[in-house]
Design goal:
This protein is an all-alpha fold. It has helices at 19-22, 25-28, 30-35, 39-54, 59-74, 77-89, 94-99, 106-120, 126-136, 138-160, 167-175, 177-180, 184-187. The chain contains 13 helices and no strands.
Length: 189
């Protein structure tokens, strides 16, 4: 296997012009250590990340539903595994996480179908947007759309540079390989 031209940057090689980002979110995750190969992008990414991931109108649980489905659709193993971990930490059951691989019931189902529509049709149909807005609010719908775009970009980056799982997630995944795997049938073989 050819080594990645952009592996996660080690602390010793961290760019000085984004030194302040190393101790925060960027230094904590391999995805941002990979993005650190382009310091200006990482610096610009930080405030958008704060809104899309932390300060959005969806709230933590529905955010994880969006990200899990987007990671699944992107076939981004890194995002899927990291957000399985986050979902478990929020109290999701294994059944709820597994249901996101299909079309779950209720609001989770509306969100999964919206993510699918954005990947397949590149938009939400008017009736779908209306139903989603009635369930979660229009600002949350707009945040959902932005989140799918945001995580698509991360998925492209992760897959292009074959970014490895962070060690703590890898260890967690070893205990539940099928749940953490983007392809659970392959994990159980």
């Amino acid at each position: 296997m050819t080594p990645s031209p952009c592996p996660p940057i080690a602390d010793a090689d961290w760019p000085s012009d984004i030194a302040d980002h190393r101790e925060g979110f960027a230094g904590a995750l391999n995805v941002y250590r990979t993005m650190a190969h382009h310091p200006a992008l990482l610096k610009a990414w930080a405030p958008l990340r704060q809104h899309v991931v932390k300060d959005n109108a969806l709230g933590p649980e529905l955010t994880e539903v969006v990200i899990l489905r987007a990671g699944l659709r992107m076939e981004a193993a890194y995002e899927w595994a990291h957000h399985v971990s986050r979902a478990l930490a929020l109290g999701f059951s294994e059944a709820r996480i597994t249901a996101i691989r299909g079309i779950p019931e209720g609001v989770d189902g509306l969100i999964v179908q919206a993510v699918d529509a954005l990947f397949d049709a590149r938009m939400l149909a008017p009736e779908q947007e209306s139903a989603l807005a009635a369930a979660i609010g229009r600002k949350a719908v707009i945040d959902l759309i932005a989140m799918v775009g945001f995580y698509s970009v991360l998925g492209y980056l992760l897959k292009t540079y074959d970014t490895p799982l962070d060690t703590n997630i890898q260890k967690e995944a070893e205990n539940r390989p099928a749940l953490f795997s983007i392809n659970p049938t392959a994990a159980s073989l």
